Amino acid sequence: MNFVASGWCGMDTNLDAVKQPNVTGRYHLRTILAFSLAALVAGLAVNRREEICAVLAAVKFQWAVAGFGCYAVTYLLRAVRLRRLTHGALRLWPEGIGAVISHNALTYLMPMRTGDIALPAILRSACSCTWGEGVKVLMQARAFDLNALGMWVLGAALVLPVSLSPEIRVFWILCGIGFVALPFIVSMASHANTLKPQWLFRYAQYLAVLRGRDIPSRALSLGIWAMFGGVMYCTARAVGIELAAGDAWFLATIQLPLQLMPLQGFANTGNHEMGWSAGLLFLGYAPDQALSFALATHAVIFSYVMVMLLAGVLISSPWLRGGGARLRSLSENGRAAADTSPGHREQELRKPSQCATSALSAGT
């Protein structure tokens, strides 16, 4: 994507002035884990290819299209939220939509959520944000995500009549409270100046936005994750899983928190299968059936990501990005031609005489 490429190329770095930590071993470990997860999921898919192909062959097209519609709405809501967090510096179209498509594609496709850190570079390319401003926007967006997810998880744990043991339900409630409270705790700690490392104190201050009354950003975040729940519901119905709305809410509260954790291989492998399989097991599905459905829904959601990525390529193309300028130029040329036409000049010449006639009429 053009946003990503130009953003990383334009990044200001001074490697000689900054002491770089030794992350080689950690990087190798993440790479090994990513390839291992991808290989494991690929092996499971090959081993169950007949079951998965049978499920995909019977996909209900209308539900798949509805799921893609919900998925597209999440991109729009994220773009609107990005525009708010950048204080209007990022235009909604086409830069905002293109930035969200680039960022989500990298986050989904890259292992261990390493693509998530590309957002500052994307914003630098899309709206000339500095690197520090981009990091601030990323942290604030993730804080709003945690807060919104915590509300959905806590609501599901308190309301849904899912058959769970008391220990699991208490753990579920504590997870919801933790998601809601964690950004506030970090922000309050920075406000009290109790974080000793200066870099940690500086970054924690970015979360002070949660102590304010940014109701639109909170509502947008709740809407984003509600639409993700809609994606899961429609995708489940598309592959033949008959879920009620409450069951889809329960499934979403298990799968979606994993989306914020670095527990994935390439193209979200491992993360998706764990969340869907665990949720379907709790809902009473057999292990083999739950795993087959998890792999099938992964294929459907992967197609959503690819379609949106293709749309992002088209949005970032010079021809489409220049289309608005060409339309404005044509409109201005049309108005200029109309202003210089003989009919328009004759009307302009008639205006003084018409004004004089009306004045005389008023005087009489």
Major beta-sheet overview? none
Low-confidence sequence ranges: 1-23, 355-364
N-to-C CA distance:
72 Å
Evaluate the radius of gyration: 26 Å
The percentage helix is over 70%
Query: Hey, roughly how much beta strand do the residues contain?
Result: under 5%
Structural class: mainly alpha
> What is the residue-averaged pLDDT?
77
- Count of strand segments: 0
Global shape: globular
Give me a quick take on this structure.
The protein has 364 residues and is mostly helical. The protein contains 16 helices and no strands.
What would your notes on this structure say?
- This protein has about 375 residues and is mostly helical.
- Helix content is about 75%, strand content about 0%.
- The longest helix has 29 residues, at about 130-160.
Topology:
Blueprint: H1 2-9, H2 24-47, H3 49-57, H4 61-85, H5 92-109, H6 119-127, H7 131-159, H8 166-191, H9 198-205, H10 215-238, H11 245-258, H12 271-282, H13 287-315, H14 318-321, H15 323-339, H16 342-363
Helix pairs in contact: 1-6, 3-13, 4-5, 4-10, 4-13, 5-6, 5-13, 6-7, 7-8, 7-10, 7-11, 8-9, 10-11, 10-13, 11-12, 12-13
Pick out its properties.
16 helices; single chain; globular; 364 residues; disordered C terminus; mainly alpha
